[in-house]
């Protein structure tokens, strides 16, 4: 399974980027279609996920789990821990090979879910590929402390949004990827002209990817 961290400020387009990924997969060749589990604190109210939530064609491939405080409180479970074990951990652990799990802003999950989810994400980054389970998770910052530390060692792809966090992305390319400041400035300037999202492939061959450009590093 592929491990993919998507990072962007509010309104940068990170959820839309992930929704578009899912739709392209489901619209593509039948042999390449995947099943998706989408965990979000705004699953029932987020207009961005409306296509995969409400359109039957996509709903057949996507199971959404609302992880908000309100949903936990009105669920059949007596505690957040029971909700987590049954609605999150059990779904992930019993997912069929080829499934991709999407965690949309897990830091914002209900009280009692967020920390448990963080530990689950750390474990998934270490072992999920052996089970052929993919993982995409969305955060607000490339440096999110304990939330992103495992990703730096495990994830193959980081997707960032150079129109909204230019300075942070330049610094990351310079300090973590090893590009010079001049190269990182040029990369951010070039990619933001052509696409909202820029994906950094961390494994060899290292490169920057958008819808219209690929640049080897």
Structure in words:
The structure is a single chain. The protein has 217 residues and is α/β, with parallel strands linked by helices. The chain is built from ten helices and nine strands. The longest helix has 14 residues, at 14-27. Helices cover 42% and strands 18% of the residues.
Q: Which descriptors apply to this entry?
A:
18% strand; nine-stranded mixed β-sheet; 217 residues; 9 strands; 10 helices; 42% helix; single chain; alpha/beta
Short structural summary:
This protein is an alpha/beta fold.
Overall 3D form: globular
Intertermini distance: 24 Å
Structural class given helices, strands, pairing?
alpha/beta
For this structure, the quaternary state is single chain
Strand content: 15-25%
SSE run: EHEHHEHHEHEHHEHHEEE
Radius of gyration: 17 Å
Q: What is the residue-averaged pLDDT?
A: 93
Largest sheet: 9 strands, mixed
Q: Helical percent range?
A: 40-55%
Strand arrangement, largest sheet? 3-2-4-5-1-6-7-8-9
Number of β-strand runs:
9
Helix and strand topology:
Elements: E1 3-7, H1 14-27, E2 36-40, H2 50-54, H3 56-59, E3 62-66, H4 69-74, H5 80-93, E4 100-104, H6 114-127, E5 134-139, H7 146-149, H8 151-154, E6 157-160, H9 166-177, H10 181-194, E7 198-201, E8 207-209, E9 214-216
Parallel strand pairs: 1-5, 1-6, 2-3, 2-4, 4-5
Antiparallel strand pairs: 6-7, 7-8, 8-9
Helix pairs in contact: 9-10
